[in-house]
Amino acid sequence: METVRVNLGARSYDIALAHGATAGLGAFVRAALPKTSTVLVVGDSNSRPHAESIQAALTGAGLRAGGAVVPAGEASKCLDQLAVLYDALYELAADRSTAVVAVGGGVIGDLAGFAAATYNRGLPLVMVPTTLLSMVDSSVGGKTGINHPKGKNLIGSFHQPAGVWIDLAFLDTLPAREFISGLAEVVKYGVILDADFFAYLEAHAHAVRTREPGALLRVVTRSCRLKADVVEQDEYERTGLRAVLNYGHTFAHAFETCGGYGTLLHGEAVSIGMECAARLAREIGLIGDEFVSRQTKLLDALGLPTAPPVRWPIDDLIAVMRRDKKAVGGQMRFILPTRMGEVKLFDDVPEPLVRAVLESAVSR
Ligand SMILES: O=C(O)C(=O)C[C@@H](O)[C@H](O)[C@H](O)COP(=O)(O)O
Ligand SMILES: [Zn+2]
């Protein structure tokens, strides 16, 4: 078992990496939350079998464990499904020691995490990510929330988990599309923070894509460490450092929003968004052709998309991007690469350049 520690003072926690060891989860939860005797295990229609076995394991560890299931998919990050979780917590007679255990991908982590952040003004949260994307990104760092029909993640809070339990065995049965989607956030870490990691992914793209266990352990552990390092320095995205994790996301959120949260998986949108961001950086003169083609080649090799599947109107995409959480006074802000392993925040990108990049993306 490997452990990645997230050092946040009183809110510090462990990310435990196991393989096929659900039985250990009870002890992990008990150690992280000694005052907790009741938990609500939240899953979706995809993660339901995992959620049920985790509920049974926690019951076996002496905890009173209730369950709640929402429909799978990004559309569940909404007020209606949040209300379902509030009702389940009420039915369970949750008090402030009751923990929410989120078993699933990014949607479940964000939704159940936000329910935990807000019910009774805050309940402890344990993340049990079952998809690659949630293992390497969304279960770590405390961002929780739901979507507004006009903007992704517009309603949310920072609420750190008390622990993250990553069972890599869940990846064995993860559908290919979901698995590949998660690789986009992995590539992101290489581009924004770690040129050596990017080179490792280039050299081991086949092993990663075919889920070779050694490659997966390395990819998940390194991604968690890189993300934890950023979160430790800028937990609440105040200094601008944490914003680097948003590379590709200004574009991605516009694609997801204009697609009605049903066309693209988040990682697919991030992959297309990173392609757009790299092209934008090239337009501005921050990087050259070689950077763009290196990134495109890796995304291709991993099976990720680099062009939007739908010709969404550019005006609609721009309107969403202007309301991105990073925007100030309607002025779009972008995280752009300056060289491999390094990105910076830019708030003075001329709109015609953004339009040109979007135009070429939707025409591909
Ligand atoms: O943890 C972060 O910080 C990130 O930006 C990670 C992103 O990959 C993730 O998609 C996050 O939910 C985006 O956050 P948002 O604040 O841009 O909605
Ligand atoms: Zn993301």
Automatic annotation (TrEMBL):
Q: Where are the transmembrane segments?
A: none
Q: Where in the cell is it found?
A: Cytoplasm
Listed binding positions for Zn(2+) are 185, 249, 266
- State the InterPro entries in the record: Dehydroquinate_synthase, DHQ_synth_AroB, DHQ_synth_fam, DHQS/DOIS_N, DHQS_C
Q: Which PANTHER family match?
A: 3-DEHYDROQUINATE SYNTHASE, 3-DEHYDROQUINATE SYNTHASE, CHLOROPLASTIC
Report the cofactor remark.
Binds 1 divalent metal cation per subunit. Can use either Co(2+) or Zn(2+).
Nucleus as UniProt keyword? no
Outline what the protein does. Catalyzes the conversion of 3-deoxy-D-arabino-heptulosonate 7-phosphate (DAHP) to dehydroquinate (DHQ).
Q: Where is the 3-dehydroquinate synthase C-terminal domain?
A: 182-327
Query: What catalytic activity is recorded?
Result: 7-phospho-2-dehydro-3-deoxy-D-arabino-heptonate = 3-dehydroquinate + phosphate
Q: From the UniProt record, give the pathway where this protein acts.
A: Metabolic intermediate biosynthesis; chorismate biosynthesis; chorismate from D-erythrose 4-phosphate and phosphoenolpyruvate: step 2/7
Molecular function in Gene Ontology: 3-dehydroquinate synthase activity
| Required cofactor(s) | Co(2+); Zn(2+); NAD(+)
Instruction: Please state every residue range assigned to the domain named 3-dehydroquinate synthase N-terminal.
Output: 69-180
Q: Which family does it belong to?
A: Belongs to the sugar phosphate cyclases superfamily. Dehydroquinate synthase family.
- State the EC number(s): 4.2.3.4
Protein name in the entry: 3-dehydroquinate synthase
Q: Which domain of life is it from?
A: Bacteria
Checking Pfam families in the record gives:
DHQ_synthase, DHQS_C
Chief subcellular location equals cytoplasm
